[in-house]
Amino acid sequence: MSKYKGQAAVIFQEQIATDIYSLWIEVPCMASEAKPGQFLSLYTQDGSKLLPRPISICEIDKLQGRLRLVYRVTGKETGTELFSRLESGDTLEVMGPLGNGFPLENPGRAFLIGGGIGVPPMLELAKQLPGAKQIIAGYRDELFLTEDLERYGELYVATEDGSAGTRGNVLDAVREHGLAADVIYACGPAPMLRALKAYAEEYGIVCYISLEEKMACGIGACLACVCRSKETDSHSNVHNKRVCKDGPVFLSTEVEI
Amino acid sequence: MSKYKGQAAVIFQEQIATDIYSLWIEVPCMASEAKPGQFLSLYTQDGSKLLPRPISICEIDKLQGRLRLVYRVTGKETGTELFSRLESGDTLEVMGPLGNGFPLENPGRAFLIGGGIGVPPMLELAKQLPGAKQIIAGYRDELFLTEDLERYGELYVATEDGSAGTRGNVLDAVREHGLAADVIYACGPAPMLRALKAYAEEYGIVCYISLEEKMACGIGACLACVCRSKETDSHSNVHNKRVCKDGPVFLSTEVEI
Amino acid sequence: MDTKVNLAGVELKNPVMTASGTFGSGEEYSEFVDLSRLGAVVTKGVANVPWPGNPVPRIAETKSGMMNAIGLQNPGIDVFCRRDIPFLKQFDTKIIVNVCGKTMEDYCEVVERLGEEEVDMLEINISCPNVKEGGIAFGQNPKAVEEITAEVKKRAKQPVIMKLSPNVTDITETAKAAEAGGADVLSLINTLTGMKIDIHRRAFALANKTGGLSGPAVKPVAVRMVYQVANAVKLPVIGMGGIETAEDAIEFLLAGASAVSVGTANFYNPSATVQVAEGIEDYLERYGFEHVSDLTGLVK
Amino acid sequence: MDTKVNLAGVELKNPVMTASGTFGSGEEYSEFVDLSRLGAVVTKGVANVPWPGNPVPRIAETKSGMMNAIGLQNPGIDVFCRRDIPFLKQFDTKIIVNVCGKTMEDYCEVVERLGEEEVDMLEINISCPNVKEGGIAFGQNPKAVEEITAEVKKRAKQPVIMKLSPNVTDITETAKAAEAGGADVLSLINTLTGMKIDIHRRAFALANKTGGLSGPAVKPVAVRMVYQVANAVKLPVIGMGGIETAEDAIEFLLAGASAVSVGTANFYNPSATVQVAEGIEDYLERYGFEHVSDLTGLVK
Ligand SMILES: Cc1cc2nc3c(=O)[nH]c(=O)nc-3n(C[C@H](O)[C@H](O)[C@H](O)COP(=O)(O)OP(=O)(O)OC[C@H]3O[C@@H](n4cnc5c(N)ncnc54)[C@H](O)[C@@H]3O)c2cc1C
Ligand SMILES: Cc1cc2nc3c(=O)[nH]c(=O)nc-3n(C[C@H](O)[C@H](O)[C@H](O)COP(=O)(O)OP(=O)(O)OC[C@H]3O[C@@H](n4cnc5c(N)ncnc54)[C@H](O)[C@@H]3O)c2cc1C
Ligand SMILES: Cc1cc2nc3c(=O)[nH]c(=O)nc-3n(C[C@H](O)[C@H](O)[C@H](O)COP(=O)(O)O)c2cc1C
Ligand SMILES: Cc1cc2nc3c(=O)[nH]c(=O)nc-3n(C[C@H](O)[C@H](O)[C@H](O)COP(=O)(O)O)c2cc1C
Ligand code: FES
Ligand code: FES
C-alpha cells in the first residue's frame, strides 16, 4: 500500500507571511515515498467539513520522516483557518502522497516558476532537480520562501505592486532578465499557467504545469477534479483527465486550460 | 442582562471516575449570579453538533468567579467526549445560568438525594442550604463526589451492586438508616424521582425534583423541553411546563412524571 | 446605504426576520438582542384554540442540523393577542403572526381574529410536518394550496405570506398555486421530513417518529428552492433554511429572496439575527451596493 | 453469527455495499480496503456510450455534506466490460452495475449488453439530478418509473434494483410503481437537489448551477424514506444516504433496509465500508442477534 491515511504529528508551525503558514509534520511512511509536485489531502477535525484540503508538498526531510507544507488561509471559518491553529504536539489527519509529481529527469536549463501559493512546491523541486535552475517566483506584494529558494538556484522575483523584483508577473521577470530555458516547471494561478503554455509553444519548449481543481476522493475514483485533455484519455475514454490521479502535473500540450 | 453567552476559560479538568469528569471554568459574570440547581448550556466546537449540552452547576466559587461542572461522557463521538478533552488554557462556549434552581428556604430537616449523574447539583445545594441535611447519594457501583459531599451534611450512600453503603437504591438507604425529613431535594433518573414523588406523598412532605429533557434553546422559546404539569400552566395555557425555564426544579406535586 | 425592503407594501427596516417557532414571540430572546434591530419578528404558530403539542422527546440533534416535532404547541389566539402582541408592540419592528390550523375553518378563524389586531402581516403555515391533520396535508397539494390561500385572503386584513413545504416534487407548482390563490408573499422552506432511530434502545428518537429537519444541513436544498420559486412567480420570497451568518443570508438574497429568516441558529447563537443584519450591511458596503434589494436575484 | 443477506436470490456475505459513483469500480479503493470484505461493489453509472460529464467545478462542500454534479461521466459500456468487470472478478464480492441513460433505449441497450457479462445485479439509476435528459426525469414520475422498470425487466438477465429519487412528494408512490413494474429490489436515496452560491464571485458554486446533496446532512431524510418504502412495498430495500459508521448503517437496517450502501464517507474515510461491516458484527454480538436480517425493520 503506497498511500497512507492516518494521523501525522505536528512538529512545528509558524506564520511566514500574511495568511501564509508553514507546517512541518512527521509521518515517516509518507516522507519516504513523497516526490516534489505531489500533494496531501488534509482533513479537519470539524465534523461539518467533510472534504479534503489538497496541499502540495513543499519540502521533504526523508531522514527525519518529515514533510513541510506551506499554505494560505483562505478566509474565516475555513478548513485552512483550523489548520493554522495547530501546534506542536497536535495531530493532523492526512492522506498521501497523492498525484504524480514533477518528472525529475532534467533535459537542460530549467525554469522553476511559482505564482503566489504555487511557489511552495518549487522548493522541493529545486532541491531535487539536477542541472541549472532559474527559479522565478511571482507574488502580489508580500514575499515568502524566497530565502529558502535562493539556496537551490538563481532566484528572480516579480511582484504585482513592484515592491520587490520586477514589477509585473513572472514572464515580465523572465523578459526583464532576458532568461531562457529548455524546460519549464510551473505551479500557480490559471492565467499564469495559460501564459506559460503559450510561451512554451512560442519557444517550442517542454512545459510541465501543476493544475488545481476541487476534489472529493483525491485518489481518482469520484471524477470531481477533471481537466480537459486534448486527446481522449485512456482511462476516462473521453477528453477528461483526473487532476488528483493523472496529475496534478501535466504537459502543457496535453491539457486545455 | 442576567444570562451570559460566551467563552469561559477552562481552569482545571480531571477525571474523577469512569467516564465522569470534573471541570472548573472561570466565568465571573455567571458565577456571581448562579444558584444551586441551575444549569449551563455547553456548546461544542464541532460545527456538526449544534445543540447545547445542559449541565448542572456542581459548585460555585463566587470569590474566584468560577463554576464546577461534573458530567458523564455518554459515548464515543459525543459532545461530552469532546468536553472531556479540554485542558487548562482552553476555552469553552457556555450560556447561563439557566433555569430556576432549588429554593433555599429550608423548612426543616432536609433530604438531599442524588442518583448517578444527578449527584453533582446536590453539592452546591448542600453548601448553601441552611439547617440539618441528610445527603443520600445513589450509584450503580463506582462512587464519586462523596468526599466533597460529606463535608456539608450526613452522607448516606447506596450502590446497586452493594459495593459501598446500602445495597439498593436511595430509598433503600433511607429505610436502612431509618431516616426521616420534612423536605426533599432530588435530582436523578426518572424512576428514582417517581419513587420519591410517591414517598413524599405517602409521608405528606414537600419534594423538589430536578427534571431532564432534550433542549434546543435552553431559554424557554422553542418548547422542546416540556414536561406535563398537573394544572394548566399560565405561560403555555396547556398542561405543559418548560424544563429549561419553568424548571428544571419542580414541586413533585405540580408535574406528572 | 439602504437596507429597507418592501414586502407587499409593508416596509421592513432590514431584510432580517426570525423563523417561526424558533424565537417564541421574542420575549426570551429580548435578553440577547434588541428586537428593534430586526426587520420583523415572526411569531411561533398560533391556532384558534390552545394546542398541547406532541409528547417528548420533541427534538433530536443530527449532523449540522436538528429535527423537531414540537407539534405546534401554542396557547391559542386569545392568550396570544392578550400577551404576545402587546409585548412586541414595545419594539420598533414589524410583527408577523404565523398561523396554524387543522381545518380551513381553524385558519380562517385566526385570520379574522387577527384582523382586529395591530399586526403587520400574516404567515400561513401549511407545511408543518408534525401534526396529523392540517399543516403539510394542505401544503403538498397545489389545489389545496390555492384554495386555502384564496379563503384566507378573503378574510385577511393584512398581507398574507404563504409558507411552503420543501417535501414536494416540484415546489414551483405549490408556489404558483399560492400565487394564483392571491398570496402576497411566499416564504420557504419549512422543514424537511426526517427520522432518527436510537439503535441502542431500538426506538425512534422522537416520540412522533418523524420530525422536521432544519439547520445548516438543509441550506443547499433551501437555496435551490428559493431560486426555483423566485424564478417561477412574481411574488416576493422570504428565504430560510439553515441561515447562520450574513454570508448564508446573502446566498438566499442572491438566489432571489427579498428577505430572510433565521431559525435554528438562534438556538446556538441567540444574537444570530442581529449579526446577520450587521453582516449584510458590511457586505453592501464592501461591494458598493446601495440598496439591499439590489442583491435580490442577482445570480441567475 | 450470520451476516449474510439475500437480495432477490443473490446472496451477499454481508449487507455492506458501496454507493454508486463514490467508489469508481473499486480499483482506487482496493489500496485501502480488501474488496472481498464487502457484500457487493456497486459501480459508477455506465451508459451505452462514453459520457464526458459536466464542466468543473463539479463539487462543493456544504455543512456535513457535499454537492456533486459530475454529470455521469463514464467511459461507456465497452470499456467498462473490458476493464472494470475483469478487475472486480478478482475479488470474492458481488458485482452490481449501476446503469444510466438518456432514453429508454439507452438503458435497455446497456442492460442487454450486461446480460452476457458475469455481473450479479443491475442497479438502474433513474434519479440522477445532474443530467438534463434521463435520470431524474424518469424518477419523479410514478408512471415513467413503472414503464422503465417493466422495459428493463423484460431484457435483464440479472435481478434489477431500481434506484429512487428523494426529490418527490411521496416516495412510496414511485416505490410502488417500481414494484408494479417488476423490480426485484429498491435502493434509496439518491441525492437531494441543492444549490450553492459563491457570494464573493456572485456565481453558482457548481458549473451546473444545481447539484446533488449527499453525506451525513441528508441522513435523517434518507432514514425516513427507507422506513416509508420498506413499510409500503414487499421488496427488499437497500438503504443509503449519509452512512459513515456502523451505527448509521444499523439505523437504516432497523428502519427497514435489508442492505446498505456507503457513499460520500468513502471520500474522507477510504476504509469506511469495511469498518461499517465490522461494526455491524460487533452490534450483533453485543445484543445477541443471530442473523443480521433480524435487524431489518425491527423499529416500527
Ligand atoms: C493539487 C493541489 C495542490 C494545492 N497546493 C496548495 C498549497 O500547497 N498551498 C495552498 O495554500 N493551497 C494549495 N492548494 C489550494 C488549496 O487546496 C485550497 O486553498 C484549500 O483547499 C482551501 O480550503 P479552505 O478550507 O481554506 O477553504 P474552504 O472554502 O473551507 O473550502 C471548501 C472546499 O473547497 C475546496 N477548495 C477551495 N478552494 C480550493 C482550491 N483552490 N483548490 C482545490 N480545492 C479548493 C476545499 O478543499 C474544500 O473541500 C492546492 C490545490 C490543489 C488542487
Ligand atoms: C437540566 C439538566 C441538567 C443536567 N445536568 C447534568 C450534569 O450535571 N451532568 C451530566 O453528566 N449530565 C447532565 N445532564 C444530562 C446531559 O445534558 C446529557 O448527558 C448530555 O447533554 C449528553 O450530551 P452528549 O454530547 O454526551 O450526547 P449526544 O448523544 O451527542 O447528544 C445529542 C443531543 O442530545 C442531547 N441529550 C442527550 N442526552 C440527554 C439528556 N439525558 N438530557 C438532555 N439532553 C440530552 C444533547 O444535549 C444533545 O443535544 C443534564 C440534563 C439536563 C436537562
Ligand atoms: C423548533 C422549531 C419549531 C418550529 N415551529 C414552526 C412553526 O410553528 N410554524 C412554522 O411555520 N414553522 C416552524 N418551524 C420551521 C422554521 O420556521 C423554519 O421554516 C425551518 O426551521 C427552516 O429554517 P432554519 O433551518 O433556519 O431553522 C419550526 C422550526 C423549528 C426548528
Ligand atoms: C460524487 C458522486 C457521484 C455519484 N454518482 C452516482 C451514479 O453514477 N449513479 C447513481 O445511481 N448514484 C450516484 N451517486 C449517488 C450515491 O450513489 C448515493 O445515492 C448518494 O450519494 C447518497 O449516499 P451518501 O450520502 O452515502 O453519499 C453519486 C454520489 C456522489 C456523491
Ligand atoms: S478528487 Fe476524486 S477523482 Fe480526483
Ligand atoms: S429548550 Fe427551548 S423551551 Fe426549553
Automatic annotation (TrEMBL), chains A, B:
Superkingdom of the source species: Bacteria
Q: Which UniProt keywords apply?
A: 2Fe-2S, Electron transport, FAD, Flavoprotein, Iron, Iron-sulfur, Metal-binding, Pyrimidine biosynthesis, Transport
Report the coiled-coil segments: none
Q: Which GO terms describe its biological process?
A: 'de novo' UMP biosynthetic process
Domain FAD-binding FR-type, by residue range, is: 3-104
Per the record, the similarity remark reads:
Belongs to the PyrK family.
Q: What name has this protein been given in UniProt? A: Dihydroorotate dehydrogenase B (NAD(+)), electron transfer subunit
UniProtKB/TrEMBL annotation, chains C, D:
UniProt xrefs under CDD domains? DHOD_1B_like (cd04740)
The record's remark on the cofactor is: Binds 1 FMN per subunit.
Kindly give the Gene3D superfamilies that the UniProt entry links to this protein.
Aldolase class I
Reactions catalysed: (S)-dihydroorotate + NAD(+) = orotate + NADH + H(+); (S)-dihydroorotate + A = orotate + AH2
What EC numbers are recorded for this enzyme? 1.3.-.-
> Which residues are involved in binding FMN?
20, 44-45, 98, 125, 163, 189, 215, 241-242, 263-264
Compartment list: Cytoplasm
The answer on whether this UniProt entry bears the keyword Oxidoreductase reads yes
Instruction: Tell me a Gene Ontology molecular-function term this record carries.
Output: dihydroorotate dehydrogenase (NAD+) activity
Cellular component terms (Gene Ontology): cytoplasm
Pathway(s) per entry: Pyrimidine metabolism; UMP biosynthesis via de novo pathway; orotate from (S)-dihydroorotate (NAD(+) route): step 1/1
UniProt domain Dihydroorotate dehydrogenase catalytic: residue ranges: 4-284
Give the required cofactors.
FMN
Keywords of the record:
Cytoplasm, Flavoprotein, FMN, NAD, Oxidoreductase, Pyrimidine biosynthesis
Identify the residues that bind substrate.
44, 68-72, 125, 190-191
Q: Which GO terms describe its biological process?
A: 'de novo' pyrimidine nucleobase biosynthetic process; 'de novo' UMP biosynthetic process
Where on the tree of life does the source sit, at the highest rank?
A: Bacteria
What residues sit in the active site? Answer: 128 (nucleophile)
Which purpose does this protein serve, as stated in its record? Answer: Catalyzes the conversion of dihydroorotate to orotate with NAD(+) as electron acceptor.
Q: Which HAMAP family match?
A: DHO_dh_type1
Similarity comment text for this entry: Belongs to the dihydroorotate dehydrogenase family. Type 1 subfamily.
This protein's name: Dihydroorotate dehydrogenase
